Amino acid sequence: MPEEPKPKIVIRGFPDPAKSPQHYYDRYANEPEFKHWFDSIFAEYTIHEVVGYKPTHVPGFPDPSYSPQYYIDRYNDEDLFKAWFDRQFSEKTIHDVVGMTEQTRMIIPRWVKQYAQMWSDDEIGDKRFIDGIADLIRQNIIVVNYNTVLQNDQEEAIPSWFKNTARWYGQNLITDDDFLSGLQYLIEKKIIVI
User: How does 105-123 read in b/e, with b if 16+ C-beta sit within 10 Å?
Assistant: First the structure.
């Protein structure tokens, strides 16, 4: 039985549909900082699995040196390309082939769940937990209005009710989205000040 491919995953703004898979392959090969970031966020995936196109029955199509947006624009603007595509892929849309309609989800690095569990069990303090959250914000995994996020050296007390949320998250009783929604709320209400 053939191995089922892993679902393609993305985080908000990555990969950019205006950039080609080749752009990201080159960055991964040539920029150690980008490679480190990618490997820490997408630990169980290769760069090709995350930013690359799925193989099709047409050799060389789609070409990884062209962006998904390039193909979508051609499909929308060029009648000959549209007719060719529709003959070749009668069961799929251009979005399906270039990977822009797949189920996507923001992923949270595994260490966040461990941090949430450790924090809820009082094994780490609020400051260390907040530092981990700040890293998620810097990586745009949690998107907040930066006007509401203040720099602060004080150790802010996080309400005790949120420890239950963190505990449930650490025990897989709530989803990533539920946990992120709680964090987003605390940050926007300035309960967590970063």
Answer: ebbbbeebbebbbbbbeee
Contact between residue 94 and residue 125 where contact means Cβ atoms under 8 Å apart: no
Q: Please list the residues that pair with 14 across neighbouring strands.
A: 11
Provide long-range contacts, Cβ within 8 A and 24+ apart, for 121-130: 121/167, 125/155, 126/155, 126/156, 126/157, 126/158, 127/155, 129/158, 130/156, 130/158, 130/192, 130/194
Which position has the higher pLDDT, 79 or 43? 79
41 contacts: CB under 8 Å, gap ≥ 6? 11, 107, 109, 139, 141
Contact (CB, 8 A) for 50 and 11: no
Task: Give CA–CA dist 74/164, Å, rounded.
Answer: 51
Which DSSP string corresponds to 112-155? HHHHHHHHHTTSS-HHHHHHHHHHHHHTTSS---GGG-----S-
- At residue 176, the pLDDT reads 74
Token couple for 134: 């700040």
Give the amino acid at 26.
Answer: D
Query: DSSP label at 34?
Result: H
Q: What is the CA radius of gyration of the chain?
A: 21
Q: Tell me the per-residue pLDDT of 136-161, one tens digit each, with 9 for 90 and over.
A: 777 666 655 444 444 444 445 677 77
Closest CA to 110 of 28, 170, 173, 192: 170
